[in-house]
Every structure is written in structure tokens, then in C-alpha cells.
Write a structure and sequence with these properties.
- This protein is α+β, with helices and mostly antiparallel strands and 71 residues long.
- It is built from two helices and two strands.
- A hairpin with a 2-residue loop joins strand 1 and strand 2.
- The longest helix is centred in the middle third of the chain and has 11 residues.
Length: 71
């Protein structure tokens, strides 16, 4: 399907909702999950956060906070 708006053309490509092979970030998530998680036990939120930052070699960032009143 092609839509024309002014002088621009927008090509819409509908993809299946569950198709991880089409999303280039998916392999990175899979490898990261295997490297970080332990099959024997659940990790605490603090442990998980530290392992993710260490695996992806990135600096710790402040968490985003959702405002109580959104609107």
C-alpha cells in the first residue's frame, strides 16, 4: 500500500506481530539474556541491572520515572 502526502511517498509494509527474525535487535537480546540470566535461580532486580550494564559495557543511567498525573 502506498500513500501520497504532498510530494512525499510513504510505503507501508505490514509485518507479522510475532517475527523476531525481522527485528535486528532480537539476536542481541537473546545473547544478552543467555549471558546474564541464571537458569538455577531468579536474580534480584539489583543483580540483574548490574549484570546487564556489565554485559553491554554501558554506564549506569538514572531510571525513568512516570509522573503520577499523565495528561
Amino acid at each position: 500500500m502506498v500513500k501520497k502526502t504532498s510530494s512525499k511517498r510513504i510505503v507501508i509494509c505490514h509485518l507479522p506481530s510475532k517475527s523476531p527474525w525481522l527485528n535486528p535487535i532480537e539476536p542481541k537480546w537473546v545473547h544478552g539474556k543467555r549471558a546474564v540470566a541464571e537458569p538455577d535461580r531468579l536474580l534480584s532486580a539489583v543483580e540483574l541491572e548490574a549484570r546487564v550494564y556489565a554485559y553491554y559495557e554501558c554506564a549506569c543511567e538514572e531510571h525513568l520515572v512516570m509522573p503520577k498525573k499523565v495528561a
